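The records we work with from here on pair a chain with its fold. These numbers are not coordinates but entries in a learned vocabulary of local backbone shapes. To see the layout at work, look at the sequence and tokens printed below.
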Amino acid sequence: MLETRCHKIKLKPGSIERVREWAQTISRRRDEALATLRDETIVIESAFLDRSEHGDFLIVYTKAESFARAAGAVRQSVHAIDEYHRQFKRATWDANEKLELLFDLDRTTEIESV
């Protein structure tokens, strides 16, 4: 059974250009990003931009085999893209809130077994 989380990250004012650059970098360095996800047991990671009168936010949805193992892998990572991500977070994140999971319907195992 996979674990599911979603975070709402308040972005620092004026960081949208950097956020878009980060998203493009992750897409461009896809193979490296996927290698990191494998190490972290992350199966799905999606990031959305939410812009409102209350500020700019990243909404990050993640599914993992184990978030405990993911945390350990993050601490021990030797991937250059992970250092890039840490620098991005320091430069752009103002606050990080874990959202309450109300339900999680998941058919990924059905699709994989076909």
Remarks:
- The two ends are 18 Å apart (CA to CA).
- The beta strands are 3-11, 42-52, 55-64, 93-98.
